Amino acid sequence: MKNIQISPSILSADFSNLRTEIKRLEEGGADMIHVDVMDGHFVPNLTIGPPVIKALRKHCSLKFDVHLMISPVHKYIDAYADAGADIITIHPEATDDLENSIKKIREKNKQVGVSLNPESEIKLILNLLDKIDLVLIMSVNPGFGGQKFMPEVLDKIKNLKKIQKEKKLNFDIEIDGGINFDNCKSAIEAGANILVSGTTVFRSNNGDIKKNINLLKLK
Ligand code: DX5
Ligand code: ZN
Known about the structure:
- The protein is α/β, with parallel strands linked by helices.
- About 30% of the residues lie in helices and about 20% in strands.
- The protein is globular, with a radius of gyration of 16 Å.
- Zinc ion binds near residues 9, 34 and 36.
């Protein structure tokens, strides 16, 4: 049984103070930092890119769990790897050559993640599960923090967990979007071992990050 890890999304952080915010996450017990990269094309929002990741890299020892909501994606993998990403997660909906992009992330010695939008099915990535380190199951439509959790994705996680067992694979299952104290237990029970959370970590309990992270871990 894998330990439950929390990957707080800095999309909900104070963007005018990101260096301090990631320090707060580190001190608050975050297991990694979820960096939501959006290009205003794959999703209707625009956030940060390689220069910001590069600037933050030297101020944080935690893994950067970089979620690329961009299309095209293949030609930018080098830039995010060189900027300091540790996990690079891409969307099959954003590339016409997923296998090649997975290979590219591997060549850069980074952990490979593949993300499925709520309406995307596991069959999109079934034949690649043995080549990846992490499957990111979206529980909101990508683009914004603070959205409502979509409980229907829990069945997809249960299904993915079953396939993982049948194929004797060991990839992480990460869930992303609308995670809070009311749904984190069902996400874990469904089979997620990494929870992304932005709003709940930064806004709940007067912004007590340590308390919020522990509550999400059911501690
Ligand atoms: C949405 C992002 C999520 C989001 C999570 O496109 O991928 O990581 O920022 O934020 P909350 O926890 O507020 O839903
Ligand atoms: Zn994300």
